[in-house]
């Protein structure tokens, strides 16, 4: 069991051996930049998060036994798609692309929401109200801040760099590089600016 940021628990199973035996699915995942660019610069925004999204997808009956795991009391298997499977992300993305195959164009916001709710209801998908927000002007998405002005840097990521002490080890240099990389979209000539830092790793 792994404790989530919310304090709740998530059950995780080690599927290393199963994943080695499974071929990698070819379904592509969308790039973060494409997703972020596609939803910026709108006056109103709504953010929705599926409640345990993977667990809302049924396993094929013939594959349920492959997800089996052992506890102190007994052996169990999943009837829904668990976290940890190699192709879980691609499978979930394929479902989203299938049920939302017709793009919802920018129109009156409440009408767009009505249509989204209709699709979710049709496919019996549930949302997590704790992670949803509707008709807001500013919101966090994929690590970026979305506003009517466009895409802006996440203040938390900025503070992570500002508040970091000068690196004292290779590990801390790598941490700094990762944090700077997360903000590279907003840094002019980011590769050249980060070159002196990168050079310390050689």
From TrEMBL:
**Which residues are in the Reverse transcriptase domain?**
2-102
- Report what the protein is called: Reverse transcriptase domain-containing protein
